[in-house]
Amino acid sequence: MECFNLLIRSFTENDRLNLQTLYLQVRLSAWPWLDSSAWKPEDFDSTTQDEQIWVAEENGELLGFASVFVADNFLHSLYVAQKHQGKRVGLELLKKVQAEFTASGTLKCLVKNENALEFYLRHDWKIESTGDSVDGEYYLMRYAG
C-alpha cells in the first residue's frame, strides 16, 4: 500500500524526539551484524549535525527522513520506519534529495545492507568504489541524474 498524503518537508525541532527513536529502531533492524550495545536515540543528533534533513510525514506521523551534507551533495542518511518500508516513502525522500543536488550526488552503503543496496541500484545509483569503515566494508555510490 502506498502513502497518498505523503509530505516531504524540512526538519523542525519538534521532529527531533520522534526521529531519534525512528533512527535507532531502523538501525537496529537494518544492521543486526553490528554491535549495537552502545547505540542510543541521541546518536541521531551527531549523525545529522550540520546537515539538511528532509522529513517524510503523513497525517502527522513521521515515516522517515533523509539527511544530506549539502556542500558535498552527499546523502548521509536515509531511514524509513520498518512498517512503512516498501510503500514509496524512501523513494519520495530519495527523489527530494536528488532534486536538491547541485552536482553529481554520492552516498556510502554498507555492503552487508543488501536491502538498501538493491534500493539504490534500482533507482539509478551506481557503485563507484569500495572502502572500509568502523561499521564494515561499504560501497561508494554515485547518482549523476
TrEMBL record:
Superkingdom of this protein's organism: Bacteria
Record PROSITE patterns: GNAT (PS51186)
SUPFAM superfamilies documented for this protein: Acyl-CoA N-acyltransferases (Nat)
Coiled coil: none
Pfam families: Acetyltransf_1
N-acetyltransferase domain sequence ranges: 6-145
Keywords: Transferase
InterPro entries from the UniProt entry: Acyl_CoA_acyltransferase, GNAT_dom
GO molecular function (one): acyltransferase activity, transferring groups other than amino-acyl groups
Protein name: GNAT family N-acetyltransferase
Organism per entry: Buttiauxella izardii
